């Protein structure tokens, strides 16, 4: 599914060039369940942003399902993000005045899905993450774990082939973190490819493959 060859990312800060990724080679098969670990500044979040088409590499090749993403225009990358990739973040990024159902329906508005189908698919996604009885609750009426489940449902509603999660348990207590990881286990069992960015070894250990980054390189 993912083929990255010698990915380099350098940021220009004034007259200074700051290398962040220094030659990443990464291959992810369809159905994989992997974690990317590393200390702050190791480059793991930058790598996730490139995998998720939120940023472009300075050099190197990135293929997603054999499509060369380094040659696509911004609008085409936005379409790829909306249709093929789901995102889950440490901060849930929910609209506070909207219900769980309305939050999950949002990506489908951008995708041009008819309103009747949006509601049906949003309900199905929330039921899939165990929130059948919370469809009309607003974020302030939900626990942290429930809010993250809404965020995961929102990431899944366009039926992405790839789910990217950046520190998805970072704002949760231990028990809730385990509940969220159990949910990821179930989603992967359904065939979704999952890549988790984490600094927590116990979280990484629950994935099927662990990638370790240090100073912009994969070291393990």
Give a structural overview.
The chain has a single domain (2-218), classed as 3-Layer(aba) Sandwich (Rossmann fold), CATH 3.40.50. Helix 3 (100-110) runs parallel beside helix 5 (144-156). Strand 7 (162-166), helix 6 and strand 8 form a beta-alpha-beta unit. The longest helix has 16 residues, at 174-189. Strands 6-7-8-3-9-10 form a 6-stranded mixed beta sheet, with helices on both faces. The protein is globular, with a radius of gyration of 17 Å. The chain has helices spanning 44-51, 74-84, 100-110, 115-128, 144-156, 174-189, 201-204, and strands at 2-13, 16-28, 33-37, 59-64, 67-68, 85-89, 162-166, 193-198, 209-214, 217-218. By secondary structure, it is of the alpha/beta class. It contains 7 helices and 10 strands. Residues 2-219 form the ABC transporter domain. Pfam families: ABC_tran. This is ABC-type antimicrobial peptide transport system, ATPase component. InterPro entries: AAA+_ATPase (IPR003593), ABC_transporter-like_ATP-bd (IPR003439), ABC_transporter-like_CS (IPR017871), ABC_transpr_LolD-like (IPR015854), MacB-like_ATP-bd (IPR017911), P-loop_NTPase (IPR027417). Keywords: ATP-binding, Nucleotide-binding, Transport.
Question: Count the helices. How many?
Answer: 7
As a whole number of angstroms, the C-alpha radius of gyration is 17 Å
Helix content, binned percent: 25-40%
Number of DSSP strands?
Answer: 10
Structural class designation = alpha/beta
Mass-distribution shape: globular
Please, how many domains? Answer: 1
CATH 2nd-level architecture: 3-Layer(aba) Sandwich
CATH topology: Rossmann fold
